[in-house]
# Entry
Amino acid sequence: MKLAGSILLSGAIVFAVWGVALLQPTPARAITVPTITKTGEQPIVNNNTVVVSSEGKANRSHTKQLEALMIEGNTAMLATSQVEQLWRELSNNKQLSQKLVRNPAVIYVYYRDFSANYDSAKVTIGYPTSDLSSTKATTTIASATYDRLLQKKKYTPSQLSKAWQEIDYRRNLEHVIEIHHLSENSEVIATEVLVNYEEQ
# Structure
């Protein structure tokens, strides 16, 4: 038993170290592009023009256009660190679960109306109204172009919390959306995180 535990612990450490190493941003590369200008008949080649390319930033700059979407679930104004409480309330919401016409494919977590220091927000966790037989108190997710913080795939809770560190809080944060994709057994199989900034 101790050997198996040691092997598992060693494997976890190796994966953690490699995961951190793989998540490091790709360094920017300077690419020298020759420019040619003609003076009379003589071409002059100027190698001083530099184009900076950052592959890591290019991969992060993907956007996703969302149309207005109506969801119904549990809503509260709370500290962003207390969202787990809202998840529990959703799982205990028998009225809402009885209105589901099929196993939901997604659950949305919609953050908006952030406090001045971004430590609290109005949060709704819910299902799309298309998955419900009737609706009562719906919330509309704003139609906008969102920046992708995390691509759609499986993440650990610590990876999800680290995504919040990638938000540029200097740009007047407007909305954050977590889209949790579910299996037929209602287990989260993939998540994506989107962010929208107020246009200035």
